[in-house]
Amino acid sequence: MSLIKAEGLTKIYGKGETAVTALDSVSMSVDAGEFVAVMGPSGCGKSTLLYLLGGLDLPTSGTVWIDGQSLSDLKDNALTKLRRRRIGFIFQFYNLIPILTAAENTALPVTLDGLRSSKAKAKASTWLERVGLGDRLDSHPDQLSGGQQQRVAIARALVAEPTLVLADEPTGNLDTHASDEIADLLSQVANEWGRAVVMVTHDPRVASRADRVLLLKDGVVVDDIRPEPHEAGAALWAESLVRLI
């Protein structure tokens, strides 16, 4: 069974003549250990899809299941607990708290969930080591580069040991080199650490690291493709993708 599954997912904003359909009967699934990128033109519904998959917004119709649990069946408190324990979120602008260190930012989800400070710090240290920041535990966000801040955000998303990681334009604020590093790290999150990863991106180079790419247009999935695995093939695939979207 797929770790995450959506069926007939529709989201309409507004009513009557001013209604806008952001998503139109989207169905998809993602397995554990799979890295899926979502691409498409601006306004095609990419971020809306991500927010619905993560329970941050409610669909007009359709259903999302995570590990067989329907999100629509959960009350607010249960949904909040599921998001905190089963889903890790990564955003374009990192969303780190300036007055907290890298370790304190990383530990925040499990600290808020009631884990003792010493254990929370140990888990944070472990994940910062895994993302290559074991020597920056006590650094504040303004002492870190953009790529390093995003690594802290990835460690924070993973510290609660979620089964699903949702990333919304995680490289959109980074240069090409840092973008490639973050894309490779997200691939590692899926392929080595066994999480399902769904990433919204506008960058074909970043999407080429994914196992699958869903193409959205006008709120509809128009293709589900697999990038070429080798570097030359990925470059040609990326060029074709730019023309397609």
Descriptive notes:
- With 245 residues, the protein is of the alpha/beta class.
- It has one domain: Rossmann fold (3-Layer(aba) Sandwich), CATH 3.40.50.
- It has eight helices and ten strands.
- The strands form two sheets. The chain has a six-stranded mixed β-sheet with strand order 6-7-8-3-9-10, with helices on both faces. A four-stranded antiparallel β-sheet has the order 2-1-4-5, covered by helices on one side.
- A hairpin with a 2-residue loop joins strand 4 and strand 5.
- The model has no long low-confidence stretch (mean pLDDT 89).
Based on the model shown, name its key terms.
alpha/beta, Rossmann fold, globular
Write the layout of secondary structure elements.
Blueprint (H helix, E strand, L loop, with lengths): L3 E10 L6 E11 L4 E5 L6 H8 L7 E6 L2 E2 L5 H11 E5 L10 H11 L4 H14 L15 H13 L5 E5 L7 H16 L4 E5 L3 H4 L4 E6 L2 E6 L5 H14 L1
Parallel strand pairs: 3-8, 3-9, 6-7, 7-8
Antiparallel strand pairs: 1-2, 1-4, 4-5, 9-10
Helix pairs in contact: 3-4, 3-5, 4-5, 5-6
Separation of termini?
31 Å
How many discrete domains? Answer: 1
**What is the correct CATH architecture?**
3-Layer(aba) Sandwich
Helix content: 25-40%
Give me the secondary-structure category. Answer: alpha/beta
Please tally the helical runs, counting DSSP H or I stretches of 4 or more residues. 8
Mean residue pLDDT: 89
Order of helices and strands: EEEHEEHEHHHEHEHEEH
CATH superfamily: P-loop containing nucleotide triphosphate hydrolases
Briefly summarize what is shown.
The protein has 245 residues and is of the alpha/beta class. It has helices at residues 46-53, 76-86, 102-112, 117-130, 146-158, 176-191, 204-207, 231-244; strands at residues 4-13, 20-30, 35-39, 61-66, 69-70, 87-91, 164-168, 196-200, 212-217, 220-225.
